[in-house]
Every structure is written in structure tokens, then in C-alpha cells.
Write a structure and sequence with these properties.
The protein is α/β, with parallel strands linked by helices and 436 residues long. Helix content is 45%, strand content 10%. The strands form three sheets. It has an eight-stranded parallel barrel, surrounded by four helices. The protein has a two-stranded antiparallel sheet with strand order 1-2.
Length: 436
């Protein structure tokens, strides 16, 4: 059965196309910097917003029209969603998808029943993967929606909730491994605090580290060789989340000897909430070797919450892909559309419009970034700006051959430092505009 009979497989038609259901910039087989666009971008569609999003918000119920969904939380309805999802993936020519355990399979009356439900859906997911060639970018466990996680999961003050979370991660890892997932993500939806008066922060962080070490140990036991990822987010739903930005995550990983096993899954909207740009978070992660994957979306700068909108800004995608290329491209990660259609965009066809636009925006960003790198104007400016470090006293400092005494002696003899030069920020922003 076709659930989107009016939609054909989305094709590349080139920049002059005015077909809203065609790619203007994303040509999967086109070679850029030695790789196909498909291999550079590794597009992934999320199961939660795309297949489970209803368009609800704090002020009203869902608006989304989904003829295939009977609204129940039954296994039968979940199995139907699998069919719908893979038709969508194929028609968008998306090579990957991603899920939380509770997105794809309903909870039962007990953990045993919940696991059995998950296994039934995993059977269907595996069969569709084999039949279509679509692969799993990553899996994860939803440890934030159920009321049992009101105080957190790995950071809960309730030891039995921690035990339940460990069991849930165990099962989600097993299914991710079975489905050939290339990564496993930890997003600490409630791993944080609302009030420090009732919080033992050190104990909570110690416990979270224990959970992650258990995951590392279990991956070795079952032979899962995928990449572990942590997704930073500063707030919402908690006042403060322990994985607040890339720097906080790296500090945590180093403090608990987890850095060899984890990289970061960065999201644009989360970077904004942390007071950073996505370019900043990517550069900071990339220079420390932990740039793992991207959740591709954007926030509304007029709203101070996680709106998860589809990316359409070429400046954003060009800056993002400039960082991806700078640090050698993805290995196991990809561009994962953790984005949802607006509440007012309620028809099934809007899912296609949204993903086509997002995929095209990132393809355009890739093209822009590659052109910027090819001409090298920005790189050459940066190299020249730091030239004083390439020889003389700068080279000695970087090589560890200088100390306070030698530097004092140097400046006493020299007098004043060489004159500073302009940073040319406006000129560089104008140069960037040349490529848009």
C-alpha cells in the first residue's frame, strides 16, 4: 500500500527548477572535494518529529492530519508507522533514519512487555532496512517522557529509577546493534536540576558517569562497535542540564575518563539556547577531536525555546559545512533532521516540503563551503594574521622554549610589541557574502 500516492521519488532538477518537490541543489552523486554529496551529508530522518509529531503545543492539542495513524498506542499501529516511514525515507532518497525506543514501540504494562513490543517493531524495522537499503544512523532511549524520570534517569535521586534507566539503555543498545546502527546517542533530557536546595550535584554527576561506563562495558560485551555520542543542551526542560554545551560535555567526559569512548552530537537550536553559534560549537568540538554528528535544525531567534525548525538559512548551512569539511567530514555521523513541521503545516505533503527544503539548504551550504575552501581567501587571511607565531619569539613560545624570564628579557630589549593590524571583520563578512 502507498501512503503517499501523489508523491514520486524526489529528483534533482537543478537550480533553475521551480518544482517545490524537487531538489535544486542536492545532487546525491555529484562529486565535491573527492566525495559524493550523499557521502558528505549522510542525511538522516528522525522518527520522533516526523512519525510521532502531532503539532500539539502548550496551548492546544495536535493539528497534524495523519490518515495512517489511528491514534492508538498499539503494536499494530506502530507496525503501520514503520511502513509509512520507509516509504517516506525512500521517496526522499534519505540513506539513514534515527529513533528513540519509545518513538518506534509502545511501552507495555511491564518492562518485560515493553521489551517484547520493542522486539516486534525491531523485526519490522530490520526487514524494511533490508528491503530498501535505508540504514540506522543512531538509536537512543527516551528517558525523559515517562513520569518515572521526573527527577532524571542516570542522575535520579531514586536508585531504582537509575536501575530502570540502565535496563532501558541495555535494551536500546541491543536493538541498535541488531539494526546495524552506526552510533548510539545519549541525550540527557532531564539530567539536570531545577533547584540546588534539593540537589547533590556531585553525586548526580558521579551516577551519570557510572551509567555511561556501564554502557561502554556492555557495548564491548555484545560487540557493538558504533560510536557513542552525547548531545549538548543547556536547558529545557530542566533549568540547567549537565550537558549544557560542548565545553561542559568535554569537561565531564575528561573528568570521568570517558573521553576515549564518546564524541558529540551537536544541534543548532541547542547551541543557540547555550548562547553560542553552531559554528562555535562545531569548531570547539572539532579542534578537540569530538565532532561526531549533527542534529540539523534551527531556532527562531525571537523565541527563547527549542522550536526545532527545518533549516533554510544558507548562511547557517554554509558555516556548518565549512566546519564539517575543516575537520575531515563525517565518519559515523551525519546530518540528522531533528526538526518538525510547524503546527500550521498539518498535511502529510508538508513533511516532504520541509525535508526537501532542509536537504537542499545543506546541499547549498556544502557547495558554498567547498567554494570558499577552494579559493582560500579566508584561510589565507587567518594564516597571515597569526604569522608572528610561525617564526622568532612566537615559534619559541609554541615550542615550549620560552619562560617568563626569557620573555621579559626579550621585551626589555625590544621595547614595544610590533604594531597590531586590523582584524578586518567587515571585509571578511563581505567576502563570505560573495559566495552566498
Amino acid at each position: 500500500m502507498a501512503y503517499f500516492p501523489e508523491i514520486s521519488k524526489i529528483q534533482y532538477e537543478g537550480p533553475k527548477s521551480r518544482n517545490p518537490l524537487a531538489f535544486r541543489w542536492y545532487n546525491p552523486d555529484e562529486i565535491i572535494e573527492g566525495k559524493t554529496m550523499k557521502d558528505h551529508l549522510r542525511f538522516s530522518i528522525v522518527y520522533w518529529h516526523t512519525m510521532r509529531g502531532t503539532g500539539s503545543d502548550p496551548f492546544g492539542p495536535g493539528t497534524a492530519v495523519r490518515p495512517w495513524d489511528d491514534g492508538s498506542n498499539s503494536v499494530e499501529n506502530a507496525l503501520k508507522r514503520v511502513e509509512v516511514a520507509f516509504e517516506l525515507f525512500q521517496k526522499l532518497d534519505a540513506p539513514y533514519y534515527a529513533f528513540h525506543d519509545r518513538d518506534v514501540a509502545p511501552e507495555g504494562e511491564s518492562l518485560r512487555e515493553t521489551n517484547a513490543n520493542f522486539d516486534k517493531i525491531a523485526d519490522a524495522l530490520l526487514a524494511h532496512q533490508k528491503g530498501t537499503g535505508v540504514k540506522l544512523l543512531w538509536g537512543t532511549a527516551n528517558m525523559f517522557s515517562n513520569p518515572r524520570f521526573m527527577h532524571g534517569a542516570g542522575t535520579s535521586c531514586n536508585a531504582e529509577v537509575f536501575a530502570y534507566a540502565a535496563a532501558q539503555v541495555k535494551k536500546a543498545m541491543e536493538v541498535t546493534h541488531r539494526l546495524g546502527g552506526e552510533n548510539y546517542v545519549f541525550w540527557g533530557g532531564r539530567e539536570g536540576y531545577q533547584c540546588l536546595y534539593n540537589t547533590d550535584m556531585k553525586r548526580e554527576l558521579d551516577h551519570l558517569a557510572k551509567l555511561l561506563h556501564m554502557a561502554v562495558d556492555y557495548a564491548k560485551k555484545i560487540g557493538f562497535k558504533g560510536q557513542f555520542l552525547i548531545e549538548p543542551k543547556p536547558k529545557e526542560p530542566t533549568k540547567h542540564q549537565y550537558d549544557s554545551d560542548a565545553a561542559a560535555c568535554l569537561n565531564f567526559l575528561r573528568a570521568y575518563d570517558l573521553l576515549p569512548y564518546f564524541k558529540l552530537n551537536l544541534e543548532t537550536n541547542h547551541a543557540t539556547l547555550a548562547g553560542h553559534t553552531m559554528m562555535h560549537e562545531m569548531d570547539y568540538s572539532g579542534m578537540q577531536g569530538v565532532l561526531g554528528s549533527l542534529d540539523a535544525n534551527t531556532g527562531d531567534l525571537l523565541l527563547g525555546w527549542d522550536t526545532d525548525q527545518f533549516p533554510t538559512d544558507y548562511y547557517l548551512t554554509a558555516q556548518t559545512m565549512l566546519m564539517v569539511l575543516k575537520y575531515g567530514g563525517f565518519t559515523t555521523g551525519g546530518v540528522n533532521f531533528d526538526a518538525k513541521v510547524r503546527r500550521e503545516s498539518f498535511e502529510p505533503i508538508d513533511l516532504f516540503h520541509a525535508h526537501v527544503g532542509g536537504m537542499d539548504a545543506f546541499a547549498r551550504g556544502l557547495r558554498i563551503a567547498a567554494e570558499i575552501r577552494k579559493e582560500g581567501l579566508l584561510d589565507s587571511f587567518v594564516k597571515n594574521r597569526y604569522r608572528s607565531w610561525d617564526s622568532g619569539i612566537g615559534a619559541e613560545i609554541e615550542a615550549g622554549k620560552a619562560d617568563f624570564a626569557s620573555l621579559e628579557k626579550y621585551m626589555l630589549e625590544k621595547g614595544e610589541p610590533a604594531a597590531n593590524e586590523s582584524g578586518r571583520q567587515e571585509m571578511l563578512e563581505n567576502i563570505f557574502n560573495l559566495y552566498i
